Amino acid sequence: MKKIVGLLLFILVNSSCSSEFKSINRKVSRIENEIAKKAEINQNLCFNCSPEINTLVYFTKIENQIKRINYKIDSNVNCKEYTKDFAIFLDNNVPILITEITTGICEYEMSGVNKKTNKFESFKQESKISNNVKIYINDWENFEITVIGGNKSDYNLETKEKYQKIINEVLRQGK
Questions:
Q1: pLDDT in tens, 80-121
Q2: What is the DSSP annotation of 38-86?
Q3: Strands lying side by side in the sheet with 144-148
Q4: Contact 122, 139 (CB under 8 A)
Q5: What is the C-alpha to C-alpha distance for residues 162 and 48, in angstroms, rounded to an integer?
Q6: 70, 143, 164, 175: which one has the fewest Cβ atoms less than 10 Å from its Cβ?
Q7: Residue 96: exposed, middle, or buried by beta-carbon count in 10 A (0-12, 13-18, 19+)?
Q8: What are phi and psi of 98, to 5 degrees?
Q9: Beta-carbon neighbour count of residue 13 at 10 Å?
């Protein structure tokens, strides 16, 4: 009996969470479909939207509302090839979903004791990076989020502030 009750609670919790994601996914799909259908919708460049990062920020307006903000980072100090694409989807000027797609080949220096020679050594190692993170925003004001494809602890209030600065500047220029 306990197993059945536990299973029912598990299903109930998962279905309520997934319906929340479905609602956000439907809103994002509508935005993407609207952008794809209307050829006259174009992306607008946001000037000086991210002064601490050397990147271009574009936003898309539909019916006088900003619906999507895109930007891309093309460099990282430790990487030969690196890109990080961001898309922020807005509903009534409030973020509902943030996607981050990161790819690259990065080089890291590692050090430790070589067991054969018993000497401290360091060497460089290359690794490929491929991440696709979706940040579902339950409450932007309190930064209550659900992270899919990444670690929730990597996204804190400092991360929110970086996104908020870009969003505020886009909203200011998009008027």
A1: 888 889 999 998 889 999 999 999 888 878 888 888 888 888
A2: -TT--EEEETTS-TTS---EEEEEETTEEEEEEEEE---TTEEEEEEEE
A3: 43-46, 57-62, 65-73, 79-91, 94-113, 120-139, 144-148
A4: no
A5: 14
A6: 175
A7: buried
A8: -125, 130
A9: 10
| Whole-angstrom distance, CA of residue 44 vs CA of residue 60 | 6
End-to-end CA distance of the chain: 59
Whole-number Å distance between alpha carbons of 124 and 107: 6
110: part of which helix (H) or strand (E)?
strand 94-113
Q: The whole model's pTM is what?
A: 0.76
Summarised one tens digit per residue, pLDDT across range 40-82 is 666 777 777 766 666 788 888 877 788 888 888 887 777 888 8
